[in-house]
Amino acid sequence: MDGPIQIIHLHKIESADRFLYHYTRAETAIDYILASGTLRMSPFTAVNDPWEAKHWFAEAVLNPSLDREAHEFMVQTASPALKGESKILCFTRDAPEAAIGPSAPNDFDFGTIWHRGFCRPRMWAQYASTKGVSDGICLVFDASLLERALVTHLSDTSPSAIFKKGDITYRNRVGYPSPEFTFDYHRIKSLGLKTVIAEHLEAHWRSLFFTKATDWRDEREFRFFVANVSTDYITFPFKDALKALVVGPDFPKSQVARLIALRERSFGIRPSQLFWQNGYPQPYPQILPPGFKSHVDVSHLPMSPPATRDKMESD
C-alpha cells in the first residue's frame, strides 16, 4: 500500500509530542506485539535500572517506643508495597528540535534527523539488538491514540487503577532520607497501608517512578505508569495507534517476508529501514532487498603478510 501513512515518521512534524517510539527485538515485535496487536506493561521491578529494580527502603516518622516494630514493618511490608502492583511501559520521543512546521507532508528535513526518536544509536544497541548492528525494530505510535487505547482498556478491566504518564526527569539520588521515602507510621496504623500508599503515590509519583539517574538522560524516556493492578502484566490492544515501524540495518532476512505480510494485512503499514552511512542515519521508506549494505564488509580481506607488517612497524 502507498500513501503518507507508510512513511509518516519521515515527514516533518509540528510537535515533538506527536509520536512515541518503542525499541524491541525482532522476535518480540513479530511474534508477540505485531502478531497479537497488543503491548504489554511489565512490573516495575523487571526493568534494568538498579534504582528501580532493587529493593527500596522506606522510613517512618514515629515515636521512639515504636521504633523496632515500625522499622520491621517498613522494611518487610511497606517498602515492597511502595512498588507493589506497579507496571510501566517505556518509550523515547522526538527532541523538541525535531519539530518544524508548517511543511509539505512529504518534505523530510534531514537537518532534523538526529532529533528524531528512531535515530538513537544507543537505543538500537541496547534495546533492539541481539547481534550485529541493530537487527531489531522501532515501533512508532501516535501518542494520543495509544494513551486512549490504554485508558479505555483500564476503564474496562481495572477501574481502580492509577494511571500516570510523562517524561523522565534525570537527577542523581541523595544518600539520606527524602520525602518520597518517608511515611507517617501512625497514619498507616490508623488508615491502613493500602490507603496511605495510594495517598503517597498521588503526592510523590514523579519522584518515585519518573526520576532516573543522569546517566540515562540521553534516552529521552517517556513512560506510561499504572498502579493498583494485581495482575503480573497488563496487555492491551493498541488498535490504530501504530503509525510506522522501522527495522535496523541488520534486520534478519528470514523475517522480512513475514513482517511485511503481517503489517500490510493487519494495519496497512509498510516497514521502512534505517541504515548508517559513515555514522549518519539514512532512513529508507522500505526494507531494501538482500545484498544492500550500508557499510563495507572487510572481514574477508587478507591481512598484510608478516614481512610487510614488519617493514611498516620499523618505518
Can you tell me about this structure?
- By secondary structure, this protein is an alpha+beta fold.
- It has one domain.
- It contains 9 helices and 14 strands.
- The protein has helices at residues 26-36, 50-53, 67-83, 121-127, 143-157, 185-191, 193-209, 256-266, 306-314, and strands spanning 19-24, 38-43, 59-61, 87-92, 137-142, 162-167, 169-170, 182-184, 211-212, 221-227, 234-237, 242-247, 272-277, 280-284.
- The chain has a 5-stranded mixed beta sheet. The chain has a 5-stranded antiparallel beta sheet with strand order 6-10-4-2-11, with helices on both faces. Strands 3-8 form a two-stranded parallel sheet.
Offer a few descriptive terms.
elongated, 14 strands, 31% helix, disordered N terminus, 5-stranded antiparallel beta sheet, alpha+beta, 22% strand, 315 residues, 5-stranded mixed beta sheet
Global Rg: 24 Å
Number of strands: 14
Biggest sheet strand line-up:
1-5-12-13-14
Q: Which word captures the global form?
A: elongated
How much strand content do the residues show? 15-25%
Poorly predicted tracts of residues: 1-5, 303-315
Tally of individual domains: 1
How far is the first residue's CA from the last residue's CA? Answer: 60 Å
Number of alpha- plus pi-helical segments: 9
Helicity range: 25-40%
Structural class: alpha+beta
Task: Sum this structure up briefly.
This protein is of the alpha+beta class and 315 residues long. It has helices at 26-36, 50-53, 67-83, 121-127, 143-157, 185-191, 193-209, 256-266, 306-314; strands spanning 19-24, 38-43, 59-61, 87-92, 137-142, 162-167, 169-170, 182-184, 211-212, 221-227, 234-237, 242-247, 272-277, 280-284.
